[in-house]
Structure formats: structure tokens, C-alpha cells
Design goal:
single chain; 96 residues; mainly alpha; 76% helix; globular
Length: 96
């Protein structure tokens, strides 16, 4: 039995499938505009972060006392974002 007869059809089939494999694995690129948070999403994210930080104080009271200045800074920054708008990069940096 000739081994090349068994191997060659497999090689040709692999050659046909291989180029289409990376194209199938790729996903459609996401437009850059949809990757940016809008104002409502940013506000919800910051509020949830603040809620989670406050909730950790119930589990660990010492953490609540130590993190109180940080929580107050976040609350003030949230008030500033609500007043000045969510287009201020400096205020977003303070939240991070």
C-alpha cells in the first residue's frame, strides 16, 4: 500500500481548511465609539463602586474607619461630577 496516497488527500484537505481557520476565529471589530462609557454608565459605575466600598465597612468595621476619608472624597467627587458634568477628565481621575 502506498503511504503517499493516504497522506496527500489529508494534506490537501488541511491546506484548504487552514486559511479559513483564522478568519473564523476572528470576531468583528467593535467600533471605537461604543467602547467609551456614556455619562449614565459612568455614574452608575461610580455609584456601585461607592456602594461596594460602603458595604465592606459592615463586614470589617476597622476598614470602614480607615476608608472613611476615601469614601468622603468619592462622594464629593460624585457631587462635583453631577454639578460640572461628566466631561471633566480630572474628576474621573480622582475617582480612579
Amino acid at each position: 500500500m502506498n503511504v503517499s496516497r493516504l497522506i496527500l488527500p489529508g494534506v490537501f484537505a488541511l491546506a484548504l481548511i487552514a486559511p479559513s481557520r483564522p478568519a473564523a476565529a476572528q470576531t468583528a471589530p467593535v467600533p471605537a465609539a461604543s467602547q467609551v462609557l456614556n455619562d449614565q454608565q459612568a455614574k452608575a459605575l461610580y455609584q456601585r463602586s461607592l456602594q461596594l466600598m460602603e458595604a465592606s465597612g459592615f463586614a470589617m468595621p476597622e476598614l470602614a474607619r480607615a476608608g472613611a476619608p476615601l469614601l468622603e472624597n468619592m462622594r464629593q467627587t460624585m457631587d462635583s461630577l453631577d454639578f460640572l458634568g461628566y466631561r471633566s477628565a480630572q474628576l474621573h481621575y480622582r475617582m480612579i
